[in-house]
Structures are given as C-alpha cells and as structure tokens.
Amino acid sequence: DGMNVLFIIVDDLRPVLGCYGDKLVKSPNIDQLASQSMVFSNAYAQQAVCAPSRVSFLTGRRPDTTRLYDFYSYWRVHAGNYSTMPQYFKEHGYMTLSVGKVFHPGVSSNYSDDYPYSWSIPPFHPSAEKHENDKTCRGKDGKLYANLVCPVNVTEMPGGTLPDIQSTEEAIHLLKVMKTKRQKFFLAVGYHKPHIPLRYPQEFLKLYPLENITLAPDPWVPKKLPSVAYNPWMDIRQRDDVEALNVSFPYGPLPDDFQRQIRQSYYAAVSYLDVQVGLLLNALDNVGLSNNTIVVFTADHGWSLGEHGEWAKYSNFDVATRVPLMFYVPGMTTSPGSQGARLFPYLDPFSHTGGSAPQGQSKKVVELVSLFPTLAELAGLQVPPACPETSFGVELCTEGTSIVHYFNVSEGKGQEGCDNTERCFNEEPAALSQYPRPADTPQWDSDRPKLKDIRIMGYSLRTTDYRYTLWVQFDPNNFTADFQHVHAGELYMMENDPNQDYNIYNNTSHGWFFKKL
Questions:
Q1: Residue 424 falls within a domain, yes or no?
Q2: In the prediction, which pLDDT does 352 show?
C-alpha cells in the first residue's frame, strides 16, 4: 500500500522545455510527462548554486537555516541535525535509493551523500563522472581540450559511455529489482546535464542548426544593474575554449557566434537529457509501476544563457532561480481514461513532432523548499510540522508549505482556502531566493564566495507581479544580515519588464509599496 516515489532532479536546467512554451527545444518525453502531470510554471530555487539549493530542498529548510551558502560544510554538524526528505520516507518503511547527483558530493553531504541517514543502500555514482572535466573534447586541430562546448562521439569516451547514460541504466535496474521484491521505494535520480561542460553525444547538434539559434533577447548588462548583482561567470572563463577568447573581466561580452554555440549546445544537452528521462519513464511503464508511482521532475536551479550579459547561475534573476517543476500523481493528475494504458511510451526527439499540453498548470509562485511537505502529503504520510522561527534544534520540521492544495484548483477561481493562518493574511504567495557576494564589485570569487569571505547577502522576493532584491550587509561569523545597511536594491515589474532589464528601485518612491515588501 502507499505510492512509490520517483524523484528526478536535473542539474542546472532552466525551463527550456516544450511544455513550458519553448518553441525551439525538442523535449518530447518530458513534455509527455507534463501531459499527465500538474505543472508549476512559477517555481523557484532558494539559492542559484548546486550544494546550497540541494541541501535546502532535501531538508525543507532555507539556506539561512542550513547555513550552507557555499560547498564547505555539512549541515548536521554546522547547523542542526535536520531530517531529510529521503530519511523521512526511509523511516516510514520506504527503500530509499540514490542514483547520480542528488546530494551535492563532498563535504556538504559528509562525503557519503548523507548515507546512511538518507539512503537504505550506498548511493550509486556513474564511473564516467570522474572524466567530466578531462580533456575529452576534440578541437578543430584534432587535439583534445577541456572545453565548455563539447559535443562528443560517445564510443571514443572513457568506458564508451557518459554519466547520465549510466545513471539511467542503474535506475532502470533498480526499478526491476524493486518490482521483483515488491518493495515500496523512493528512488532519486540525479542527472548531470545540462551542467557544464556541455558534453553530450554529438548527434544531438543536428536538432539545432546554428542558423536557428538566436542570442538572448537582452544580451547586454543593464544600465541600472548594481555591480554587486552581477555574476562574472568565472567557471565558464576557465574552460579551454572560452579562455582562448581572452574576454575582459568582468563585463567583456563573449563574441556573438560563440554565444550562439553555447546556446545551441545547452539545447542539445537538454534533448540528450530528454532521451534519458524518456528511457527511464518507459521502463517505469514496462515494469508495471506507473500506476502506483508518483513522479516528480525538477532542477536545482536555472542557468543564464547570455541574458544581462551573464552566463551560468550565481544570481537572483529568474533565469538563474526559476526551475521546471511537475508532479505526476496516479489517479490525481492523470487524464481520465488513461488507467491501464501505457502512459510513457519512449518518444524519439529526432522523429517526434508536435508537443503535448500539460495536464494541469498552475501559475502560483512556489518554492523548492516546499517539495518535502508536498511529497509527504502526496504519498499519504503525515506532513512534517512547520518550523518555528528558529529551528536549529528541531530535527523534523519544514520551512516550506505543501502545495497540494494548488493541484485541483482551476486558475482564477479566487482565493484558495488557507489552513495556516499565520502565512495567510491574504498574502499572495512569494518565493524567496538569496545569493552571497564577497564585495560590491565583481571579484574572481563573486560567483562562489567561501563563507568567511561573504560580506553582502542579496535577498530576493518574487511574486507574480515583481522581483524585489535587497543587497544587505552580512556577517559570516554570526550569520546575521543587517537590513539597515543596504548596499543596493533592484525592483523589476514583471508585467512590462518580463526579462528583468529595467531596475526601477531608485526611481520608485519608497513609500507604501516598499513597506508592503
């Protein structure tokens, strides 16, 4: 009894997907999942970098509570012994399994992906992962480089494979084992692409002829962007092909043709990912588990593709914080009449045309920190209690709220019911993200400052109508932000500035509107 959970988490995937209205991308398998799912078109990560975001949504706590803003501490030691979402399922009789990149590897998950707390058996990591940053990209001169743009011939790769291919194979194997054992499971599958390097099977380039690839709609640094808000994309500059371009630090733009190549390869990597997801969901069908398994699909954060003259994550803009988020729940989100039918036949992106619309779509602003309570509720487990104001000593609680009540409410029916009065007050839902900086101007470590070097924290609030960001003084010794000491501010009105190019913070009277914020 009870539903299984298949939790698919993708590294650095912004919602460039057909089901999110992208006209260029070929993502038929993810779109097919969306056609049986509740899709959230306004979902946001709590910090646009891997380890802090993952620890946040896996514990259901915000970065100020995990105290992880970089990669160098383990929350159970450094902040509090917080239960994780997989741990909670494990304690409720689930076999919990981790494949690929779920927790960020290294000290931030105790060099063990938080095993044995979170997982029933040691997590699986693909052997090809260790070659991700090797020189495996063939240049025009025939030599091998560690490039950013890296389409490859898979047969020439070490082991003749790539990490995500191995992760799909392992996940499919585990699904078969779970079916045979009739064991209730929580299986997390973490895909690496489209994280850099953009290393993927070269045939996917054929889907995206370069002449169809445009630049970002706003490829310049906005005039009124505070310098503290800018991320100088150091990780990209360090790749061989970008380094060879000798671009000036920090604002020097990449050449247009190279911008197009990055965008082309990002899309190609998304289609390669789509194939992996398609094979995995097809296997779920094949072993007969798609009628009693909840499927969640999301990403740890987005990725800039040249917007605002920026690349990579490391910022508070929508392009870095917004993620795809969809839930397939058998009997709840499925279209009537689909019971017993094959829900997820594999679709080949090279031949499949025509998209499919999401089964249900919500424009409500939601946060990844709400995944834990939401999945608990969908699986019929008791929803973890809301955290008190300070919760360092509380092992099980969540700073998110279950979003299940958004599932069956058709848009525009007025205010939904709200059981948690504290959070209610007719407040419109908002998403909070944050990003640390070492200084007011771009530095070599602006993208990824170590805790001891953080001097400023950018707290960002996103509602349907606006994004409002304050960059305030921050003391890393006692983890306090001083909102009396504002270094810079940003305000973007979504209705007439959807790309967040025109900061009106300084030309808005700071009266009632800012008090409300």
A1: no
A2: 87
What pLDDT, on a 0 to 100 scale, did the predictor assign at position 399?
Answer: 98
β pairing state of 185-191 and 4-10: parallel
The domain tally of the chain equals 1
Q: Does a structural domain hold residue 486?
A: no
pLDDT score recorded for residue 56:
98
pLDDT of residue 231: 97
**3-class SS of residue 107:** helix
Structure tokens at 461: 């609030």
Tell me if 435 sits within 8 A of 444, measured CB to CB: no
In contact, 378 and 327? CB cutoff 8 Å: yes
Q: Do the Cβ atoms of 201 and 272 come closer than 8 Å?
A: yes
Give, as one character, the DSSP assignment of residue 331. T
Radius of gyration of the chain (CA): 22
Number of helices and strands (H, E) in the chain? 13, 17
Q: Is there a domain that residue 465 lies in? A: no
| Active site residues per annotation | 50, 104
Cα 445 to Cα 308, 331, 344, 442: the distances in Å are: 19, 48, 44, 8
Q: Which residues contact 170 (CB under 8 A, 6 or more apart)?
A: 99, 100, 124, 126
Q: How high is the pLDDT of residue 428?
A: 77
User: 285: domain range?
Assistant: 4-409
91's enclosing H/E stretch is: helix 85-91
Residue-by-residue DSSP string for 230-286: ----HHHHTSHHHHTT-PPTTTPPPPHHHHHHHHHHHHHHHHHHHHHHHHHHHHHHH
Q: What pTM was computed for the model? A: 0.96
Distance in angstroms (rounded) separating the CA atoms of residues 42 and 421: 23
**Which helix (H) or strand (E) is 78 found in, with range?**
helix 75-78
CATH number of the domain at 260, please: 3.40.720.10
| Rounded Cα distance, 399 and 417, in Å | 19
Task: Give alpha helix (H) positions in 92-189.
Answer: 163-181
Q: What is the pLDDT, as a whole number, of residue 340?
A: 60
- CB crowding 180-192: b at 16 or more within 10 Å, else e: eeeebbbbbbbbb
Which tokens sit at 185?
A: 């499971």
Name the stretches of the chain with pLDDT < 50.
410-425
In this prediction, residue 358 carries a pLDDT of 82
- Write down the pLDDT at residue 408: 73
SS3 assignment for 411-457: CCCCCCCCCCHHHHCCCCCCEEEEEEECCCCCCCCCCCCCHHHCCEE
Task: Give residues with Cβ within 8 angstroms of 404, minimum separation 6.
Answer: 374, 377, 378
Closest CA to 221 of 148, 321, 304, 322: 304
Angle, CA of 219, 222 and 228, to the nearest 5°: 115
* 474 within a domain of the structure (yes/no): no
